[in-house]
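Marked as duplicate of an earlier ticket. Keeping the data here for the record.
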Amino acid sequence: MRTVKTWSTPVRAEEKNLIPCGICGGRRFKAALSCDGFSYVRCAACGLVQMNPQPLKKEIQRRYGADHGEDYLAYELANEEGFLKLQLLALADAGFDKLEAELTQNETSAAGRILDIGCATGSLLAKLKERGWETVGVEISAPQVEYGRRKHGLDIRNIPLEENKFPADSFAVVLASHLIEHLNDPAAMVREVHRILAPGGRFFVTTPNITSFQALLFGGRWRSAIFDHLYLFSIKTLTRLLKENGFTIEKTGTWGGLAAGTAPVPLKRFFDKAAKRFGFGDVMIVRAGKNSEFGKRNSE
């Protein structure tokens, strides 16, 4: 049985540093996954799976800039329709549609404002804009930013989230779909999202699930164990990261039992339904609410 990996920039030599665990700061690790040209370790304390040593931030930004930006745009455009459908389904499963009226019509200044971090071509933001949302995107791949601005007329910022310095409490919703696993410091991103979310705001995070059936089956050949993924989260590690940085977990879900082409269609359908029902799907989404008391405690 073979599986197809998610597209990634080519494996190459890069400047790296040894780093502590991205959640608990631990420095004891054991081998987790051995891949083609790179590997992952698991934190002995909290179980987070990450690359270590890890490429420097400047190396990560190069991957999505001049080196491979056009290739990444071509990949996103080739899969744009399918990716958008999956994103909308995931948000619906996480209760976004049911919360939409509440988040767009309350009396706060942030009502109806939504931020998509790592928005790629902007197709999701364009759809949300049609539904009445005031949309903003963040994307470090310049070719995709240009495409989203030109094609959809979107406000997309071509710098990392923290460098935008958005005002506090300025968004009702923040989305991060297949983004957190690419970041050098996911905790810093989560803290910034907490700062810019308005009271009552929601954070929707989508990322591969390292405890999925496919991950356990394929190991280092798992389609999400790719060079561009610096972290591989489980529901346990992702929810811990969110809780420790000011969020209350409201809903979690997974989907994807077997990848297309890895099993006969009837078997794939069976596993897909089971994965969604029992939580061992290949991809997960977490809906988290801003815990306003967290910020008050930290400022005292």
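See parent ticket for discussion. The chain has one domain: 16-299.
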